Amino acid sequence: MHILLAPDSFKESLSAKQVAEALKKGFQEALPDATFDLLPIGDGGEGTMDTLAGVLNLTKKHTQVTGPFGKPVSMAYYQKDEMAFFEMASLVGLGSIPAEKRNPLELETRGIGELICFLIKQGKKEIYIGVGGTATNDGGLGLAVGLGYQFYDREGGELKACGQSLLEWDSIRKEEAFKIPDDVQIQILADVSNPLCGLDGATYIFGKQKGLSPNMFEQVDQAIYSFYEKHCSSILTQAGMGAGGGLAAGLCAFAQAKLVSGIDSCLGLIDFDSKVANADLVIVGEGRLDHQSLSGKAPIGVARRTPKGIPVIAICGSLSDDLPSLPF
């Protein structure tokens, strides 16, 4: 029997690689004659770029950008030829922000815009960005500041690069904004399909786990809606714009990025289809399997790409009661 081990990371516990290695150890004890293919998976969330780096032989680099608390930090990215890869979580990941400092309206995402400018100036033509696992809920305003946009309140005061500014902004200055060259393609690897606003949007679905009080949901959601209604209304009707606390929306509106399925893109990059063709059994997994998993998470994406006749088993840290029947 040949078993393909293709788990995602278990958030704040184990990387995808560590999960795959643990699964192999366990299956070897039960099936000593089995052979294995370890293929850790990412879907655009935290750990995706580490996973891709091992398969695609990417080189890891660092550069200095503005961190989540407004001070300079070293941010990681990966590169190969004219391609660059990075994930939001390496700057503002939920797991990297201490619980007592988790305020999704105060953390800055300016560094994301700064990194995009840096990579383009370095000659990168294809930029892949994972937007999952963030601790922010700023609708992409912060990264816009990193790209050179300036936001002001009614008194003309310049606002910070954070979500709180969505509640105070009155005008935008674009004159000093960085122009994305026509020959540069920026792709957003999204791990969810949630819209930007509404009851299924970024604030209502993901705000609580990031530390946002439920009594703020309506106010914040309306502020994000009003912001995009005035600046780029088409964003409001597009699926997936709620990824990364709305960072996906900001990337599309301010950096001319294109949203793609994180899991499908990653599976294509690592040549999953040819590898799964030789498998007798596929094992997937993530920290928690719930209704959100059907919105583009790794286990469901892998199962959908696995040919009929090859069984797929999910091994997870927990299984939610709200998980509906799987559509395959």
Structural summary, described in words:
With 328 residues, the protein is α/β, with parallel strands linked by helices. The protein is built from eleven helices and 14 strands. It has helices at residues 16-30, 48-56, 89-92, 110-121, 141-146, 202-206, 217-231, 247-255, 262-269, 272-276, 298-305; strands at residues 2-5, 35-38, 59-66, 72-80, 83-87, 126-130, 150-152, 171-173, 185-190, 258-261, 281-284, 288-289, 312-314, 318-319. The strands form four sheets. Strands 3-4-5-6-9-10 form a six-stranded mixed sheet, with helices on both faces. The chain is globular and about 70 Å long. The mean pLDDT is 91.
Task: Please supply descriptive tags for the structure shown above.
328 residues, alpha/beta, six-stranded mixed beta sheet, four-stranded parallel beta sheet, 11 helices, 29% helix
